[in-house]
C-alpha cells in the first residue's frame, strides 16, 4: 500500500496492487485488472517522503510507483491485443458476408434474365392468341408450358429473396456487435488519453521507463494501421451497398414497368372478354329467335344446330380467356408483392448505408485521435530523453530539373514503423534508410509543417527555452521554410506563423490574468562576424571589407543565459510590427548568387524572441525564449563555382558548419569537453545544445539526382543530431522581478 501526503498533512491511501514481487505469470505478479477508479487513483497519486534528503527511500518509492505504472500499462496493452483480435475476426466475417451477397446478386440477375425471357415469350404467345384464337391450338399449349415455367421461376426467385433477407438480417446483427465493440474501444481511448496527461505531469520521474513507452507507441501505431484497414473495409462495404442499392432501384423500375404492362394487358383482356360476351348474348338472342321460328319452319333446324355448336365453341373460348385473365391477375399480385419487397429491401439498405457512414466517420475521428495520442506520447518520450528532435523536409523539383521516374533517388517507406517518419535515399544502386521524428514530402504545405511545431512554440509562452533551426545544402529550401515567400499569405514561413500564434495566444490568455512583454532581436553571423540586422546605422550593419565596425561580444551569465552585448532589442506589440522588422532585417542580410542558387544566403540568420509573462492573480512569473535560426547552406566549391568574396563566404560557412558537426559528435559520444568555442555559431547555440532547451532541427534536402551526395551527408548529420541527448528542458518560473535583458537562453 502506497499513500500520498495531502495539503493538511494527512496520509491519503491509494488502491492496493496485487503482490508486485511475485514471479508467477510475469515479473509484476499474477494477472491484475484495473477499474477506471484504480487508474485515476494511480495517476493522481503523490509519493510520500519521510525525509527530504533520504534519497534511498525516495528511490524505492519511485521504483515501486513505476512498477505499478508499468503493470497498468501492460494491462492496457493486453486489452488492446484482445480488441485487435476481435476486430480481425469481425473483418473476416464481413468479407465472407460480402462475398456471399455478391454471389446472391449474381444469381438474382440470372433469374431476372430468365424471367424477362419468359415474359417476352408470353407476350408473343398472347399476341398470336389474339390473331388466331380458334386456329392455333398448339400455340395455346406452348403458352401453358410457358406459364408453368414462369411459376417455377417465380418460386425460385421467392426462395432466393427469402435467403437474401436472412443474410441481410445476419449481417445487421454482426454490424450491431461490431458497433458495441467500437464503443468499448472508444471508452478505452478516453482512458488512454487520461493516462497520457498523467505521463506529462510525471515526466521527470519516469526516465527509466522509456523502453516501455517506446513499445506503447509501436502498439499505438499498429492500432492506427488496423483502424486504417478498418476504414478501407468500411469504404469497400459502403461502395458495395451503394452498388446493391443502385441495382435494387433498377430492378424496382423494371418491376414497375412490368406491372404497368400487365395492367394494360388485363384491361385489353377484359375488353375482349366483354366483346365475346356481347357476341355470345347476340348469338343467344339469335338462337332464341330461330327457335321461335323453328316451331313454324322445321327447315331451319340445321341452322339452329350450327349456331348452337358455334355458341358452345365461343363459350369455351370465353372460359379460356377468363383463365388467362385469372393467371394475369395472379402475376400482377406477384409483381406487386415483389415491388413491396424491393421497397423494403431498399429502405433497409438505405438505413445500413447511413449506419456505415456514421461508423466511417467515427473510425476516421478515432484515427485522428490515435494519431494525436501517438504524437503526444512521442513528444513526451523525446522530452524525457532530452533528444534533439529532427524533422526532414524534401523540397519539390524545380523547373528544369530531371523529374523522370528513372532519375528519382528518394522514396518513402510505407511500413508501420516508418510511415510518415522514414526516408530512403538511393545512391549508386545502394539504398540508405533513415528515420526521423517527422518527414515532410514535397507536396507538404507550409501550414502542414507549422502544425507539427505549433505545440513546441506554445512551450515558449509557458516559460521554456525553444530553439528551431534549419540545416541543409544551399538551395534546399531552408530560407523558404523559415521565412516563406513574401507577398503570398499561403506560403508564409515558420517565423511569421510562430509570431502570429504567440500574439493570438497572448490575447486569449489575458482573460486568465496573464500579461506578456515581448522583445525581438535579429542578427547574422557573416564570415565569423556578428552583425546587428535591426541597427538603423547602415555603417554599423555592413562595411566594405565585410567586417562590422561595431564589436558584438557573446557573454554568458550565471543563470545559463547567453547575451549579445550592444545588440539592438525592440519591444513589440503586434505581428505587423514584427513583420516590418523582418522585412528590414531581410534587406540588410547578406545574399549572393552562386552556380547552385541565385538567392543564396551567405550568413547564419538568428531571430530571437524573449517572452516575459506575469499572472496578476497568482503572481507567477515566467521567462521563455524562442530562437528561430536559418543556417547558411553547405556547398561544394566544385559545384558552386565561388570565387573572390563568394569563396571567402563559402569557406567561412563550411568552417562554422564543420564546427557544429564537431559539437554534435562530442555530444553524441558524451565527451567531457564540447568545443562550443570553435566558432561564433556554436558558441551562440550553446544554450540550445547544452541541455536546458527544447531543440528542433529541420534538415532540408533536394530531390535533384545530381545532389544525392550532399543530401546523403545532410541526412547522416541529421541522424547524429537526432541521437544526441542534451538533457530535459526546465520551465523558468520565479516570483522575483524579471530581468528584461534579451538573451538567447
UniProtKB/TrEMBL annotation:
Region annotation (Disordered) ranges: 1-31
Protein's cellular compartments: Cytoplasm, Cytoskeleton
InterPro entries linked to this entry: Kinesin-like_fam, Kinesin_motor_CS, Kinesin_motor_dom, Kinesin_motor_dom_sf, P-loop_NTPase
Major site of localization recorded for this protein: cytoplasm
Keyword Zinc attached: no
Domain Kinesin motor: 387-724
Coiled-coil zones: 76-223, 259-380
Keywords on record: ATP-binding, Coiled coil, Cytoplasm, Cytoskeleton, Hydrolase, Microtubule, Motor protein, Nucleotide-binding
Family per record: Belongs to the TRAFAC class myosin-kinesin ATPase superfamily. Kinesin family. KIN-14 subfamily.
Gene Ontology cellular-component terms listed: microtubule
Taxonomic placement: Eukaryota, Viridiplantae, Streptophyta, Embryophyta, Tracheophyta
Protein's UniProt name: Kinesin-like protein
Alphabetical list of SMART domains matching this protein: KISc
Residues the record lists as binding ATP: 472-479
Source organism: Arabidopsis thaliana x Arabidopsis arenosa
One protein family per Pfam: Kinesin
Origin: domain of life: Eukaryota
GO BP annotations listed: microtubule-based movement
Record GO terms (molecular function): ATP binding; hydrolase activity; microtubule binding; microtubule motor activity
Amino acid at each position: 500500500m502506497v499513500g500520498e501526503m495531502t495539503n493538511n498533512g494527512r496520509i491519503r491511501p491509494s488502491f492496493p496492487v496485487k503482490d508486485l514481487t511475485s514471479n508467477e505469470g510475469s515479473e509484476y505478479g499474477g494477472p491484475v485488472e484495473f477499474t477506471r477508479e484504480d487508474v485515476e487513483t494511480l495517476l493522481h497519486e503523490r509519493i510520500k517522503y519521510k525525509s527530504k534528503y533520504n534519497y534511498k527511500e525516495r528511490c524505492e518509492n519511485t521504483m515501486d510507483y513505476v512498477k505499478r505504472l508499468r503493470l497498468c500499462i501492460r494491462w492496457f496493452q493486453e486489452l488492446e491485443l484482445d480488441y485487435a483480435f476481435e476486430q480481425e475476426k469481425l473483418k473476416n466475417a464481413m468479407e465472407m458476408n460480402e462475398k456471399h451477397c455478391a454471389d446472391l446478386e449474381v444469381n438474382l440477375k440470372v433469374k431476372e434474365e430468365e424471367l424477362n425471357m419468359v415474359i417476352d415469350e408470353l407476350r408473343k404467345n398472347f399476341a398470336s392468341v389474339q390473331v388466331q384464337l380458334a386456329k392455333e391450338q398448339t400455340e395455346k399449349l406452348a403458352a401453358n408450358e410457358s406459364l408453368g415455367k414462369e411459376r417455377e421461376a417465380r418460386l425460385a426467385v421467392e426462395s432466393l429473396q427469402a435467403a437474401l433477407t436472412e443474410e441481410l438480417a445476419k449481417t445487421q446483427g454482426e454490424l450491431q456487435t461490431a458497433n458495441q465493440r467500437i464503443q468499448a474501444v472508444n471508452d478505452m481511448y478516453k482512458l488512454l488519453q487520461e493516462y497520457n496527461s498523467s505521463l506529462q505531469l510525471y515526466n521527470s520521474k519516469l526516465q527509466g521507463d522509456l523502453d516501455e513507452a517506446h513499445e506503447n507507441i509501436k502498439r499505438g501505431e499498429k492500432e492506427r494501421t488496423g483502424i486504417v484497414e478498418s476504414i478501407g473495409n468500411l469504404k469497400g462495404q459502403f461502395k458495395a451497398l451503394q452498388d446493391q442499392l443502385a441495382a435494387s432501384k433498377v430492378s424496382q423500375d423494371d418491376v414497375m414497368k412490368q406491372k404497368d404492362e400487365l395492367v394494360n394487358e388485363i384491361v385489353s383482356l377484359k375488353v375482349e372478354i366483354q366483346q365475346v360476351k356481347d357476341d355470345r348474348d347476340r348469338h343467344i338472342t339469335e338462337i332464341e329467335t330461330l327457335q321461335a321460328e323453328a316451331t313454324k319452319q322445321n327447315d331451319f333446324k340445321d341452322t339452329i344446330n350450327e349456331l348452337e355448336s358455334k355458341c358452345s365453341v365461343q363459350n369455351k373460348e370465353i372460359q379460356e380467356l377468363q383463365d388467362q385473365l385469372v393467371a394475369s391477375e395472379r402475376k400482377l399480385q406477384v409483381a406487386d408483392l415483389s415491388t413491396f419487397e424491393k421497397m423494403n429491401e431498399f429502405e433497409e439498405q438505405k438505413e445500413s448505408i447511413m449506419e456505415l457512414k456514421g461508423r466511417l466517420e467515427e473510425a476516421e475521428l478515432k484515427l485522428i485521435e490515435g494519431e494525436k495520442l501517438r504524437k503526444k506520447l512521442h513528444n513526451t518520450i523525446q522530452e524525457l530523453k532530452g533528444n534533439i528532435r529532427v524533422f526532414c523536409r524534401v523540397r519539390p523539383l524545380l523547373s528544369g530539373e530531371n523529374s523522370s521516374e528513372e532519375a528519382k533517388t528518394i522514396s518513402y517507406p510505407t511500413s508501420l514503423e516508418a510511415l510518415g517518419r522514414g526516408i530512403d535515399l538511393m545512391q549508386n544502386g545502394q539504398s540508405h534508410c533513415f528515420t526521423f521524428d517527422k518527414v515532410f514530402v514535397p507536396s507538404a504545405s507550409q501550414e502542414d509543417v507549422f502544425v507539427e511545431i505549433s505545440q513546441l512554440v506554445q512551450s515558449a509562452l509557458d516559460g521554456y527555452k525553444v530553439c528551431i533551426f534549419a540545416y541543409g545544402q544551399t538551395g534546399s529550401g531552408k530560407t523558404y521554410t523559415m521565412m516563406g515567400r513574401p507577398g503570398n499569405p499561403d506560403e508564409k514561413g515558420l517565423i511569421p506563423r510562430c509570431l502570429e500564434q504567440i500574439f493570438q495566444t497572448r490575447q486569449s490568455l489575458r482573460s486568465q490574468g496573464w500579461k506578456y512583454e515581448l522583445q525581438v532581436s535579429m542578427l547574422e553571423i557573416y564570415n565569423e562576424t556578428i552583425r546587428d540586422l535591426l541597427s538603423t546605422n547602415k555603417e554599423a550593419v555592413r562595411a566594405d571589407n565585410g567586417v562590422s565596425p561595431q564589436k558584438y561580444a557573446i557573454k554568458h551569465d550565471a543563470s545559463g543565459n547567453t547575451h549579445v552585448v550592444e545588440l539592438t532589442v525592440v519591444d513589440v506589440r503586434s505581428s505587423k510590427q514584427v513583420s516590418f522588422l523582418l522585412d528590414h532585417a531581410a534587406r540588410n542580410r547578406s545574399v549572393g548568387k552562386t552556380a547552385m542558387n541565385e538567392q543564396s544566403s551567405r550568413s547564419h540568420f538568428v531571430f530571437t524572441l524573449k517572452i516575459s509573462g506575469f499572472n496578476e492573480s497568482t503572481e507567477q512569473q515566467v521567462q521563455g525564449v524562442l530562437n528561430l535560426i536559418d543556417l547558411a547552406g553547405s556547398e561544394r566549391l566544385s559545384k558552386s563555382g565561388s570565387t573572390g568574396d563568394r569563396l571567402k563566404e563559402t569557406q567561412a560557412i563550411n568552417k562554422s558548419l564543420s564546427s557544429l558537426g564537431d559539437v554534435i559528435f562530442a555530444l553524441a559520444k558524451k565527451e567531457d569537453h564540447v568545443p562550443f568555442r570553435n566558432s561564433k555559431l556554436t558558441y551562440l547555440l550553446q544554450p540550445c545544445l547544452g541541455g536546458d532547451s527544447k531543440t528542433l532541427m529541420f534538415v532540408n534536402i533536394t530531390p535533384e539526382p545530381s545532389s544525392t551526395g550532399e543530401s546523403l551527408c545532410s541526412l547522416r548529420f541529421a541522424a547524429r543530431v537526432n541521437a544526441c541527448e542534451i538533457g530535459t528542458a526546465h520551465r523558468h518560473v520565479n516570483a522575483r522581478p524579471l530581468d528584461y535583458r534579451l538573451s538567447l537562453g
